[in-house]
Protein 1
Amino acid sequence: MSEEEFREVVPDKLKVDKEQKFTITLPNGEEIIIKLNDKEIETIENYIHLLGKHNIRFDLLNILRVFDELNITQISHMVEQSKSTVARHLKIMEQDGLIISRKAIKHQKGKIPPKLYQLNKKLLQVLEYNPVNPAPPADPKKKVEFYKRVIDWCRVAIHSFNILLDLLNPLLNSFELQLDNITNATKIYDKYFGIDSKLGPSFGYTYFSEKYYNQFKKIQLDFIKKNIELVTAQNNDPEVKEREYVAFLVTLPLKALYTLKKRKLRGK
């Protein structure tokens, strides 16, 4: 797939009409229409800023993405924060339109039904189709704002990766503590790291020359196209509530980054 073909796969613009309907046109001509209110549109436009208000928001969003719907007690145990702290952030995030809540139908008799929180799934659908590499606007002032959003988005991605990768440490520590008991260690390895495991992390990296990177990029664009097809199928699948896995897709211009770092260290 060429970059021109890629731009046909990933929509450059997500249009909102007078009735507040977001229309996403897919490569096959299929249209996905998502009705949003003013607050939800504002949230999409300020998504990065709203996430960056506090580090705990990344954890809260990721936990709700994985477990679909939880109460404050369940969430506070996972983020290792007090209920009051979690409640304060959830309240603000709900006001910002990032999450929604409802009172639990089933609860202990004589007790106040707890609030259950979940992500605003309409926003998620729109954000998942955001353009990967949109063209910057021609107007210089708008271009500066566009560049700022690119920088913010990259910083958010880096921060999210750091948070998610750090979740591996408890598993690795547990694995290491069991090395004196080969039976238990083998069970952990088979469950999380073995070739037949469906739960374990997967890491790998490859260094490319410019010549072969261009070929890799074509493969990568094909992968993104198939990924979009999977995301579309997943969003249209009524049985999908929880999302158990996260897939990272990162490519770094390593030589350029090392060169830039070297120049910075020299004060150039």
Protein 2
Amino acid sequence: MIKIHSPFAVPMAFARREDTDGLNAQLHQLFLERERAGNRYANPNPYTQRNDALFESHFDLFRWPDPPVQKLREFCFENLMRTVVQLNGYDQAFAQRLRIGVDAWFHVTRRGGYFGLHNHPMATWSGVYCVSGGDHDPDSQDSGQLQFVNPFIMTNMFIDAGIAQMQGQFTTQNRGWQLEAGQLVLFPSWLLHEVKPFHGEGERITVAFNCWFQVDKT
């Protein structure tokens, strides 16, 4: 009998916020207002490839005092801590000593906007929360898709029938999600990812963040 094991894996976490309090609508309005303010809120030194159909804010979003932003921050941190605690096997006493450092920002993407391939050095966990997915063209299946590059991409140097159709966690293909409002995706910051061009009407609005951790010695 053959026993198949999976000794290597990449953890990702998914959560959804039920928008019973209209938070996404509040964030949508706030971010469009800040986008219209122009350079006051725009990232002055973008380093990842993008085009003019995408607006990126400064990285201080989670320090804004606006109640909708702080409510979103609480949701993101709550789910991030649950993920870290579960994956590391921390008890509650140790978890209470963890302190999160964060950069956070928002994107407003309109037709044709995209975000190039990148990862996030100097962080351990990253996340993307979808405020609005936009209205995708029906014939564009990967419109605005958040796509992750398979870390075993080098296994594609040679493909034959022995590996061409491997399923599940053994696939050599990339993975992508077309996010909807309220969805949160958490992933290791080293994992390469990109946002495919958005083909649709309205705005695709997301919040992204990078986190690192310290342990309180007291």
Protein 3
Amino acid sequence: MKKLVVSLVALCMVNLVSAQINFNNIEPDAVVTTENEMGYPIYVYGVGEWNAEFYIQNYMYPDMPASSYVACFVEGAGVVVNPGDVQGMQCIKPLQEGEMISGSSNFAVSDGAPLFPVIYDAELHTQWLNTTAFVGFQVKNAGAVHYGWIKMSVNSNNTFTIYEYAYQTSANTPIAAGDKGSVGIESAVVANTLSLYPNPATNNLTINFTEKADIVKIYSVEGREMKSFVPSSLSETINISDLQRGVYFVVSQKGQEKSSHKLIVK
């Protein structure tokens, strides 16, 4: 068991030191319609009053389309925009795979107040229409800047589709649009035997298993073990009210098989 703990922590450190990229595949793809005014949340470190650093907001109404945004709700959160304003609007640049996102990118960044860079406007910013591309973003965590990307499309049927996103866990480190990294705690998983509810969670977390695990551990993104327990059934509810807001990994082990899911605590 001691060897197992060391192995899992080592996997976390590989994610931080070697690959440095935390990749999140959204399954199924998230389709954003005009019915949800708040939009689709993107959780990176899950900090700030809004918990999600970004909300992708779709106001592409069929009869009277309004500007749509990647809203930045947390201080230090920002997206890569085209140079210059368009009638006072900051317009998000559609990045192609491989384009670098770094401190030299042209960011529009929130100073703590909500910021609404435009992803689509029927008259003034249509670069994204019928296009799948990448939104470059930055966030701050513990005062340090981290860069990342969101893959999405703006569709002709008045919907948006969000496919996946990734970010550098190492501060001030550039990332290429579409770069998913290599080996990390999530990509080392060889089984998918658990699900979490609710997620994001606040006080209690229910973990459901397809088969009973030998042990379950919760790790921080830095690789610190935060909780550990041996499940006695296929459904376990645990108290997580002592965990601070942020991102964690729930890792279950049965024999040599591991399953990991990302957990947001808000």
Protein 4
Amino acid sequence: MNYKRLTLFAGHYGSGKTNIALNYALWLRRQGLKVTVADLDIVNPYFRTKDGEAQLREAGIRLISSEYANSNVDLPALPGEVYSLLDDRSAHGVIDVGGDDRGALALGRYVPAIREEGDYEMLFVLNRSRPLTRTVDDALEVFYEIEAACALPFTAIVNNTNLGPLTSAGDVIAGQRFAEEVSARTGLPVKMSCGARKLGDELYNKVSNFFPIDIMQLYYMEKEGTSLGKTNL
């Protein structure tokens, strides 16, 4: 699978972009690359990249996040260290963008530097199981709202349709078909379809570019409980 120096993950709340971002960072690290993860999701009180800090550190991955992450204070403050990631072109960066257009606004200040370098992917994480992205039109509404908020166009789509631990291979396959419909409307490719590693034998020959993921610390599910339409994997 091809990759750029900077990979940005954005999508609707609960799309699972944070878990994918962490898995993608670990995958890049296994390719022998120097990797930094930047958490720009300052509005999501649930699952944050901060929740995977120990595992990232163990893998030798640097994490940049708000000093208020996972505290009782969640101010709209972003670390200046993000600029160091943009300046240090020896590192591959994975950027977790805040959910929806509100979260994507935080990315705006970094867009000029990202555009100037031009070595990036902006990936739209799509989970058809979420209430507000169950139709193509609804998904496109979120898609274009995020683009407008951060002034950075998406370059590809990631299928992450899931129902938490209840997810079957059929759910992932149906999600890819849905992602392909969104792809046809936007003209963007589907970069990969994500699914739990345990589903690999059922999915490797059924979806293109299957990306196996491990579920990181399930903070969201511990907090809210597991139910259909409330997944953040």
